[in-house]
Specification:
This protein is mostly helical and 270 residues long. The protein contains 15 helices and no strands.
């Protein structure tokens, strides 16, 4: 009876989370006439699969897709390199003021992005980066406090004796980091990569602020083009939204076991 109650509650809550996604899929294949009927129809009478191609071709989503791939890929590379390098420095090196700098790093996590939004815009405007993809890529090359903290905790769980053995064999700190630490921290790096891809791929406010030219738009910003003066093309929005959701869902599905492993093994020591 206890298991029945537990599984019943899990199924109930899973339905609550799946229902909006299911509604998005069914709305994407509805006809405009069935969209606003009352009571609402969960299952359309006829599945209009052509809505996906029609919605994608309505706007230059191929250009938006290319921009999203560039932003996500370049920022992911910078985020992994910078966060891992800084985390390794905090975990293994001893220098004056290390604890103070680490506390400042953790304190910066409490500052919301909305507070630094205007100063960042002024800085990027001074550099001439407005209406380019640089404001969405370059900041990731300086690391993120949460990712640095996460990777630092993982590195502190790696035995120091491995690095001492490599140092005896003549390896310098950079070689130890590249050949020893990075392969060992691959679960944590995959975890950071998945988190960053989800944040970058779904980012809407950043492109909205820094981009003006439609040829620079990302996929999330391109969705706003379906909002007209006299109405909203809800079928096209749902169709393109479903297509945009597919890459993050696929990444999360294939990296799920690495995510669980990275979280489980982070912070065991230290």
């Amino acid at each position: 009876m206890k298991k029945i109650v537990i599984y019943g509650l899990l199924i109930l809550f899973s339905i609550l989370f799946i229902a909006p996604f299911f509604w998005m899929i069914t709305t994407a294949v509805k006809s405009p006439e069935e969209l606003y009927v009352f009571p609402p129809k969960w299952i359309p009478s006829i599945f209009h699969w052509s809505n996906f191609a029609t919605a994608w071709e309505t706007q230059p989503f191929n250009i938006y897709l290319k921009n999203s791939l560039i932003v996500t890929g370049m920022s992911l590379l910078g985020q992994l390199l910078s966060s891992a390098l800084v985390a390794y420095g905090f975990a293994r090196f001893r220098f004056r003021g290390k604890d103070t700098l680490f506390m400042i790093l953790l304190a910066s996590m409490m500052i919301p992005w909305e507070v630094t939004m205007i100063p960042q815009y002024m800085e990027f405007n001074f550099l001439g980066w407005i209406n380019t993809l640089k404001p969405l890529i370059v900041p990731a090359w300086f690391g993120a406090p949460f990712f640095i903290f996460l990777l630092r905790q993982f590195i502190m769980g790696i035995p120091v004796e491995l690095e001492e053995a490599a140092r005896i064999d003549g390896a310098n700190p950079l070689q130890i980091f590249v050949r020893l630490i990075i392969p060992l921290m691959s679960p944590a790096l995959i975890l950071v990569g998945v988190f960053h891809v989800l944040n970058s791929w779904n980012d809407y406010l950043g492109p909205l602020i820094f981009l003006n030219d439609q040829s620079k738009y990302t996929l999330t910003l391109g969705l706003s083009q379906f909002r007209g003066m006299f109405g909203v093309d809800m079928v096209s929005i749902m169709a393109v939204t479903f297509l945009i959701c597919l890459p993050p869902l696929a990444i999360f599905f294939f990296a799920q076991r690495y995510i669980v492993g990275g979280i489980a093994t982070t912070g065991i020591k230290g």
